[in-house]
């Protein structure tokens, strides 16, 4: 991606004749705006589905040896133009003891592994032995992902009981959770000895960010449905399988919390690449020449109405985010605007750009971002190209020969928002980030309650920037940065970060994560919804989110025959 990205939209008065441009980071990188982003074709799960549908991946079940006690093994084979993969699923009899969605869990209803090639019996058995050890275990060569999931016990058991009695599960019950199993861990990129993402060769089917994790999640979703069908069949000769409609509606549950905020801090180039890809795709869609009767406008209207219906049926209650009923009502109004444009056309140079500008002025940010995400579907080739262009490294190095004045100029040009923060104000350093001794997970709590000497895991970008600026102010502008670091080695991290990320517009959310006013759920939602593509992200305590991946996605049987590319925003199954 180009570092010299022109980002003028939303920062200057709207020029109706200028070509649409990616939006200004000063506007876009505010937490409230980032939290309003919606899933799109460049989100990891949707990008994977677009690829699988276009390439007609073939997924077959090689083995499904699971008994009535739920214990056993399933092996799937995934054939793609970019390689063959095996998904190994180890099913366990559900237990209450040690059952948790946290990384400290030691009991899971299933564990799984995504492996390159056709897995041999030795790989199946070695993985069965090593995977439950987690950090003490080691993956076999060619392993991409280790994963774990637990059932939604009430919904899973009710679904099996319904199928065993010869009927589909109750639609209202299914719609309450929208999944049979919930992901409790997707580990790869070198963890446990898995293959590093950057080591994947050119042409590898999963050589774009989070693709391997998303395929593993998708296969857990497939396994959950297959398991429900198998258990029902073992209970009764009158059992029926899940209908295609219900099976597609059911995704895989996903819960996330504060660890994703540390991920954002540790992966600034990926965050920049993804947001830039989304913005470029939106700009390409806004620039499309459309007129009266254009089928692309009819398609967009259909997608907006589908999103409105989805939101109207959404049963989740949101605390930190807009109620779905509001967004549904506004999307219906947006659909009317699209219909009017389709009927009458527009004399504007860029009609879709004008439409997006009007929607931004009149409606909630989530409504606007939903429209923008759906507009990307009008430029699918460009979106798919961008989704596969995010291969970055996060290594950062100091440029010791850079002059102090040049480094300070970068600070004042790109971190003016951080320099403007009053870090002496009450509440500016109210919280500290730490690792829980019992749960082994990141936590954020009042600094006054933390034990003395607590190491702060949070990256204090505003504080570090202000400290670096103050130090540079005392140095000769022509002096090399190396001399500053000889005197102030504590500034090495922020110097390397500022130098390495210079020119990238979207790498850093503009927020103080230590402040009392910071709402963690905003950043967690950016990752969950926008980057991963999770739907119906219900928030808890303004920091934890739980939602659904692959909600409405084609099932394995659909892919080889050519599935519907507009699978997202599914309606609830008919009762």
Describe this structure in words.
There is one protein chain. By secondary structure, the chain is of the alpha+beta class. Helices cover about 40% and strands about 15% of the residues. It is built from 22 helices and eleven strands. The chain has helices at about 25-30, 30-35, 45-55, 120-130, 155-165, 170-175, 210-235, 245-250, 260-265, 270-285, 295-315, 325-345, 350-360, 365-375, 380-385, 405-415, 415-420, 460-475, 480-485, 490-500, 520-530, 555-560; strands spanning about 60-65, 70-80, 85-90, 110-115, 145-150, 180-190, 250-255, 430-435, 440-445, 535-540, 545-550. The strands form two sheets. The chain has a nine-stranded mixed β-sheet with strand order 1-2-3-4-5-6-7-11-10, sandwiched between helices. α5 (about 155-165) crosses α7 (about 210-235) and α16 runs antiparallel to α18 (about 460-475). The chain is globular, with a radius of gyration of 25 Å. The two termini are about 50 Å apart. The mean pLDDT is about 95.
What secondary-structure arrangement, pairings included, does this model have?
Blueprint: H1 25-28, H2 31-36, H3 44-55, E1 58-66, E2 72-80, E3 83-91, E4 110-116, H4 121-130, E5 143-151, H5 153-164, H6 171-177, E6 179-188, H7 211-235, H8 244-249, E7 251-256, H9 259-266, H10 268-286, H11 295-313, H12 324-344, H13 351-362, H14 365-375, H15 380-387, H16 404-414, H17 416-419, E8 431-435, E9 442-446, H18 461-473, H19 481-487, H20 492-500, H21 520-532, E10 535-540, E11 544-549, H22 556-559
Parallel strand pairs: 6-7
Antiparallel strand pairs: 1-2, 2-3, 3-4, 4-5, 5-6, 7-11, 8-9, 10-11
Helix pairs in contact: 3-7, 5-7, 9-21, 10-15, 11-12, 11-14, 12-14, 16-18
């Amino acid at each position: 991606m180009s570092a010299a990205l022109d980002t003028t939209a939303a920062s200057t008065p709207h020029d109706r004749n200028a070509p649409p441009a990616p939006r200004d980071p000063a506007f876009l990188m505010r937490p409230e705006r980032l939290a309003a982003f919606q899933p799109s074709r460049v989100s990891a799960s949707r990008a994977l589905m677009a690829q699988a549908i276009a390439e007609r991946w073939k997924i077959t079940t090689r083995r499904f040896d699971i008994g009535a006690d739920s214990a056993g093994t399933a092996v799937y084979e995934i054939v793609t133009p970019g390689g063959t993969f095996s998904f190994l699923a180890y099913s366990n009899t559900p237990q209450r003891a040690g059952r948790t969605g946290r990384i400290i869990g030691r009991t899971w209803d299933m564990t799984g592994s995504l492996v390159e090639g056709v897995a041999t019996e030795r790989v199946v058995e070695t993985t069965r032995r090593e995977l439950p050890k987690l950090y003490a275990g080691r993956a076999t060569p060619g392993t991409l992902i280790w994963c774990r999931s637990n059932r939604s016990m009430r919904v899973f058991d009710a679904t099996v009981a319904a199928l065993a009695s010869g009927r589909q599960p109750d639609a209202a019950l299914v719609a309450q959770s929208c999944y049979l199993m919930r992901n409790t861990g997707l580990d790869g990129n070198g963890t446990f000895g898995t293959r590093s993402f950057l080591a994947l060769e050119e042409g590898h089917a999963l050589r774009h960010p989070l693709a391997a994790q998303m395929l593993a999640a998708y296969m857990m979703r497939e396994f959950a449905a297959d398991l429900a069908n198998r258990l029902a069949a073992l209970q009764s000769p009158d059992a029926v399988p899940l209908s295609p409609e219900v099976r597609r509606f059911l995704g895989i549950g996903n819960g996330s919390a504060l660890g994703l905020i540390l991920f954002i801090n540790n992966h600034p180039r990926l965050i920049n690449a993804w947001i830039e890809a989304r913005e470029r795709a939106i700009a390409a869609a806004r620039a499309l020449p459309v007129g009266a009767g254009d089928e692309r406008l009819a398609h967009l209207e259909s997608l907006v109405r589908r999103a409105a219906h989805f939101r109207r049926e959404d049963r989740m209650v949101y605390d930190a985010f807009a109620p779905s009923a509001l967004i549904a009502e506004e999307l219906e109004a947006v659909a009317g605007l699209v219909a009017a444009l389709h009927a009458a056309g527009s004399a504007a140079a860029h009609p879709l750009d004008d439409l997006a500008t009007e929607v931004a002025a009149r409606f909630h940010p989530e409504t606007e971002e939903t429209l923008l995400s759906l507009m990307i579907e009008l430029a699918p080739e460009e979106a798919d190209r961008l989704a596969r262009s995010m291969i970055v490294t996060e290594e950062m190095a100091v440029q010791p020969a850079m002059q102090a004045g040049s480094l300070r100029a970068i600070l004042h040009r790109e971190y003016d928002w951080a320099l403007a923060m009053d870090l002496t104000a009450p509440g500016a350093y109210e919280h500290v980030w730490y690792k829980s001794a019992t749960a082994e997970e990141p936590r954020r709590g009042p600094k006054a309650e933390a034990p003395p000497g607590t190491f702060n895991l949070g990256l204090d970008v505003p504080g570090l920037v202000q400290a670096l600026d103050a130090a540079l102010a005392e140095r000769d502008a022509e002096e090399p940065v190396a001399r500053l670091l000889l005197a102030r080695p504590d500034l090495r991290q922020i110097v390397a970060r500022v130098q390495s990320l210079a020119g990238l517009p979207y790498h850093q959310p503009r927020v103080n994560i230590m402040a009392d006013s910071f709402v963690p759920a905003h950043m967690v939602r950016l990752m969950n919804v926008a980057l991963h593509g999770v739907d119906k992200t219900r928030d808890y305590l303004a920091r934890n989110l739980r939602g659904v991946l692959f909600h409405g996605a084609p099932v394995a049987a659909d892919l080889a025959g050519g599935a519907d590319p507009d699978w997202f925003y599914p309606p609830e199954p008919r009762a």
